[in-house]
Amino acid sequence: MKKFQTTLALTALAAALAAPAAFAQSTDSVGQGFVRGELGKTKLKDTTSSDHVKDTSYNIRGGYMFNRNFGAEGFYGRYYDKTTHNLGIDQNTKVDGYGAGVVGKVRFGEQALDTGFYGSGRVGYMHSNYKSSASNTTNGITTNYSVSSGSNQPYAGVGVGYDFNRNMGVGLNYDYFHGRVRVPTTGNKVSYNAQTLGADFEYRF
């Protein structure tokens, strides 16, 4: 897994940093702002076991492309939000995060500069939040419990897609980060891997 994580990060970094040089010959480098909505499925896996959970997730990204191939982004993502009911206890668990990074974009084949198929990569730094809350009602008395924990870590992602024109495009993306949760009763940290596969629609202006 560590080898895979390193490969993913290097691939994303290479795409982000090599894109400007690959298209430095372009005389039209007018920048564009962008917003992108992503919908997909996130898998959260405990790094010490095979235990994992999945949920529908979304990301909202926005940023600025300094030219057609290199830019910066900020984002918010909600990766997990489910409530379970067991033995009279309702427990809700949420994982979300936000961050900022650099993005790169390169096109495939001899195509127009603003349309056609492309590959992309992004790397950056983010903060993830984990929150678990539970409630139990016994003999008319409700007891509530809540714990939250956050961690800071790098993130990386790669993708492919198609731009219809200078302003609109769609894509498929894979994103990864390695989060940590502090157990309140012991102070120990539990690590988890977050892997997201999703589709996006992007608008540039």
From TrEMBL:
<dbReference type="InterPro" id="IPR011250">
    <property type="entry name" value="OMP/PagP_B-barrel"/>
</dbReference>
<feature type="signal peptide">
    <location>
        <begin position="1"/>
        <end position="24"/>
    </location>
</feature>
<protein>
    <submittedName>
        <fullName>Outer membrane protein PagP</fullName>
    </submittedName>
</protein>
<feature type="domain" description="Outer membrane protein beta-barrel">
    <location>
        <begin position="11"/>
        <end position="205"/>
    </location>
</feature>
<keyword id="KW-0732">Signal</keyword>
<dbReference type="InterPro" id="IPR027385">
    <property type="entry name" value="Beta-barrel_OMP"/>
</dbReference>
<dbReference type="Pfam" id="PF13505">
    <property type="entry name" value="OMP_b-brl"/>
</dbReference>
